[in-house]
Amino acid sequence: MATDKDSPKKPVPTVAAPAAGGPKVKWNVEHLKSSYVNFANANSTREEVVLNFGLNTSWDRSQPEVEIELAHRIVMSPFAAKRLSDLLAKLITEYESRHGELK
Question: pTM (2 decimals)?
Answer without folding.
Answer: 0.69
